[in-house]
Amino acid sequence: MNTLSSASGDISLDQASPFAAARSGIPGTEPRAGLAPGVKLTVRDLTMRYANGHTALRNLNLSVHAGELVVALGSNGSGKSTFMKCVVGLNRPTTGSVEVAGRDLAALSGEALRQARLPLALISQNANLVKRRSVLANVCCGTLGRHRTLATAFGRLPHEEIQPAQTCLDEVGLLHLAGQRAGTLSGGQAQRVAVARALAQRPHVLLADEPVASLDPEAADEVMRLLRRLATEDGLAVVCVLHQPELATRYADRLIGLRRGVLEFDRPASEVTSQQIASLYSAEAS
Ligand SMILES: Nc1ncnc2c1ncn2[C@@H]1O[C@H](COP(=O)(O)OP(=O)(O)OP(=O)(O)O)[C@@H](O)[C@H]1O
Ligand SMILES: [Mg+2]
């Protein structure tokens, strides 16, 4: 039997095949509308000094528009993950501000801050799926930020989100695996499910920290094509950290280069020279 198990009961998925639902015009299964144009993420003078005194980011400024795919390059320890964590609120920046969809996160707290962060989704190197649960249940988890009821706090998945979750799975080309246990997926499939889970959040800004690090070249290409399409067709503002300059140049609109926590360049991908990229990885860069 094909079910989403939960603490307070199972949600049956047997009524209709996920494929049938997504193709039949059932509300919630339509393609997502493109986002309005404009700047979706603005970072101003961001500095992050950790408690041990290490300054991982210095006065970083960046704007990302709807529909843009920006790739961040830089050697190990140059501050890329620190930047991503500051944007999503896992790190509290020492100084500077982060504006998401026009709202300054530093000016907010409590429930208002939580709401303002909803348009932000983060994907990391590991898909971090719940292995024993179905693919669809994992994608539904992306919606939980919108449902803070007692039932969801105990693990029950919101029934009305199942069809939108199917749409997200369809968008990454894996609807046929909806009922499969997440632990059985290949690395490339798992990462695409992680993208679907992020899409279920209905983000405006999608951050991906080394999303292809553990994938073979073909699977890596597939995930990058997906991120490119989400920017171009759905209007998401995408920021992606990569250690593969070739993939970065191929897929990004803009490249940013970080070196010891400082933004070395922020330019259209076609204008970045191989020397500029090489300088990020030279011995004195780390
Ligand atoms: N919690 C922390 N406390 C102290 N220093 C930290 C902390 N987290 C990261 N750092 C340091 O900040 C610097 C930047 O780390 P970060 O993880 O942002 O680098 P990165 O560019 O993502 O590297 P990689 O390519 O290896 O993932 C490193 O020198 C790291 O040791
Ligand atoms: Mg990192």
UniProtKB/TrEMBL annotation:
Domain ABC transporter: 41-285
Keyword Nucleotide-binding: yes
GO terms, molecular function: ATP binding
KW Lyase (keyword) present: no
Top-level taxon in the UniProt lineage: Bacteria
UniProtKB keywords: ATP-binding, Cell inner membrane, Cell membrane, Membrane, Nucleotide-binding, Translocase, Transport
UniProt-listed Pfam families: ABC_tran
PANTHER family named among the record's database cross-references: AMINO ACID IMPORT ATP-BINDING PROTEIN (PTHR43166), PHOSPHONATES IMPORT ATP-BINDING PROTEIN PHNC (PTHR43166:SF6)
Protein name (record): Phosphonate ABC transporter ATP-binding protein
Organism of provenance: Paraburkholderia solitsugae
